[in-house]
Every structure is written in C-alpha cells, then in structure tokens.
C-alpha cells in the first residue's frame, strides 16, 4: 500500500480551500453519464471531459453533441454550479481548420494527445507526433491547450519506463520546437516527469497534472498479496520513490503542478476479467484524498496553490468560491452505480479521513 507520512491534525479540524477544478475527468458515455456527472458536480467547480469515447470526439460537431449530453445530465442531476469544458481527440489526420473551428467555442479548450495504443480507447491516437506539427503551431497561436498522455506505447519499452522514454524521445522536442505552446503532461507518474517539468525555464508553459491515486499509492497496492485489478491504471503505479516525488511536487507551491484526477470508471465485470481495463475510479472522493495526502506531509497550506495553479493555467474564473472540509472519517461504499451497472470505487469499504461539509 502507500507509505504516507504520519503528520496529521486533530479530528474535527476544519479547513477552507478554493473550490477545486478537475482538469482530467472521464464521464464515459450513455447511461454512465447520468451517474458520473452528479458525483463530479459535488466536488468540482469545473471539470475537463476526456474525449476517448467510442467513437472518439475527433470533430467539433461531435464535441458539441457530447458537451450537450453532459450539460443535460448536469441539469438533471442538480449540478448546475459545475462548468464542463472539453478537448478534442487528436489524430494524425487532424487539420488546422479543425483548430480554427473549435476556437469559436468557449467550452473547447484544446486537444488531447493519446499515443496510439497507450491506454483505454486510444487506438485512433497519434502514431507520429511530427505529423501534428501544423496543429501544434496553430494551438500555440491561439493560446489553446495540448493535453498529453505522456507515455510511449512502443511494445518493446518496459511499461514502467514509458514516461521516461516519452520525455527523452517526444516531449523534449515538442517543447523545444513550440516554446509558447501550453502543454499539460497529464497524470505524471515518475520522478522523471517531475524533474523534467522542474527543469524547464520559469517562462515555460508546461505543467504536470497529478492524480490522487498516484500520490497515495505505489505499485505494492496493485501487486502485493495478489493482483488488485481496481488499482490497475495507465500510467501504472510506480515505486515508492516516485510516489513520494509526486507528492512533494504537488505540495511544492512551484506553480507547475495541477489537479487532474483521471477518474476513469469501468464496470466491475470489465475490471475483474482475464484482461482487465485500465482505470481507477476516484471521482467520489478525489478532493478528500488530495487533502489527506497533503496532510500526511504537513502541507495543508499548499493546497490553495495546487488548486489555483490549474485555474490560472486554464483561465478559469469562479468568483472566489470556496469549499469547507472537516477531518472526520467516513466509509466508502463497496460499489456505486454506473449507469445500468456498477463500479468499485477507490478505497471501497475503507475509510476516508476528510469530509466535505460545504
């Protein structure tokens, strides 16, 4: 399991934080949306919806239809206070004209770059990033965002080294060739990702998003005592040294790391199978788990910077809304509704140390 430090505050302690935004959220499609949007709206002021649906959201009309579906679920679920923004799914064949078209819609903030075959529903992703250079250039001109699943999918590369090799062979060149392009290295999972971002000039427009599961758990959670499929995600959980580096980075107040849960639900049946899907569902308690992790290293004071860095990067204006939490344990349900099926949430049947009260 995780090796969180023992630093803590007394039970009953209350804290007030800026209202969090999640800049990496999987709402899936179909009936699942009606379950997931209300859960997210209880915790986030803005959520960035991922486009790796079936079929993927590769065009502006598809993005508009998906956004409308999400907004309808938001209204039906009583979550009108949460804003939803979208990114399109980047392919080798995406055109500059598509960039110009999407720039006309405020809710579309950029693209998601999946290396082909790197994760769930990524088969249509990028096979050669050089083919995307015209799109990168236009994104940079328009100050739009490129969100990247920062791993290679080369079969010969060890799964634990995918992020390191991506840094060495792909993103270093992109950053050099497009110094003004806003880039999110999503769900960084290694000290290599942390160090790369820290090594960039202060003027760099590259940030890294960090998930609650990558700062709370190392690969022992997945592998010790038998394989735990509900901890299987991509990027895969790494060694304890990487987990500790990610938590240090998230709480460093460097202005380079942001909140992105990568809450990615799959049904229990699709996880507990001979070839289980990659993804951790943490949307039910993501904010509370971030607070727990920051508390573990005595850095509750750094939460505001972590939250506000993402808002600043994406240009989110929320009028100074706040959220109040109390240190009070509550038990996570063993399973939760996922449309017409069920999902097993992170820390199912176990206790979470913080509770949202307002």
UniProtKB/TrEMBL annotation:
Gene3D superfamilies: Metal-dependent hydrolases. GO terms for molecular function: dihydroorotase activity; metal ion binding. GO terms for biological process: 'de novo' pyrimidine nucleobase biosynthetic process; pyrimidine nucleotide biosynthetic process. Keywords: Hydrolase, Metal-binding, Pyrimidine biosynthesis, Zinc. InterPro entries: DHOdimr (IPR004721), Dihydroorotase_CS (IPR002195), Metal_Hydrolase (IPR032466). GO terms for cellular component: cytoplasm. NCBIfam families: pyrC_dimer (TIGR00856). This is Dihydroorotase. The lineage of its organism: Eukaryota, Sar, Stramenopiles, Ochrophyta, Bolidophyceae.
